[in-house]
Amino acid sequence: MNMNRFLDVKPEVAEAISQGKPVVALESTIISHGMPYPQNVETALKVEEIIRENGAIPATIAVIGGRLKAGLSPEEIEYFGKKGQEITKASRRDLAVLCARGEDGATTVTTTMMIAHMAGIKFFATGGIGGVHRGAETTMDISADLEELAHTPVMVICAGAKSILDLGLTLEYLETHGVPVLGYQTSELPAFYTRTSGFSVDYRIDSPEELAAAFKAQNDMELGGGMLVTNPIPEEYSMDPAVINKAIDQAIAESVEQGIHGKASTPFLLARVAELTGGDSLASNIQLVFNNAKLAAHTALAYSKM
Question: pTM of the prediction?
């Protein structure tokens, strides 16, 4: 039994997929939980515009009224932005209940990958992926995003993983699950707000065409699973590692003191880091999403020509 009876694909997106045109999926957690209204809606619409300008069709993904949506209208994006954190942050474990109850859900990396794959979309641009949280050797707090990358054949273009995570363990986990971690024009894993982390990626790839060729080979061999492309934040928006790491350490200490854990931890940490950096981290966050959307569109376009 496939899940497609729950799936609504926007006509423009369905037409592009059926004709083999490039389509790029976008998540909705960044709209509801990533930034305040109206900045969240403006950013979401701008990301869609960037994807169009670079030759692909955007498909923002969400759960609305129990329906899995691949492609939202501007009105639906506005609705999501206004409801904000009232909307459930939906990971894999949440989809069945949300659909059965006819509720809304903001899709994470995990659920965006799942719904994109159901719809036949192969490329997805996001900010950063989830990963292994610091202290996971005792808490077992590991993002479902990593597990999804191991199973679902979607290429995820991101700015690495946020340095609120344990980046070394995140890479180890991906390696165990056979997920290729590619650096776009870099040999080092970017750490979201900063271009470097001190950790190496598996391969450096220098063009969208090369990225597309690698993903095509993986799909043709039916290896299963996704591919992670880490695209460093543009130089001019990169933050001082000392400043951002100090803010992250303080935010993590506060989250421990306040007993914040599970799905509440990432939104708390990101909001607190934004406060501690005087909003600089939010400005950087927006720019790196734009940068990833552009690369995803170019890669999807290259893939469509193969």
Answer: 0.93
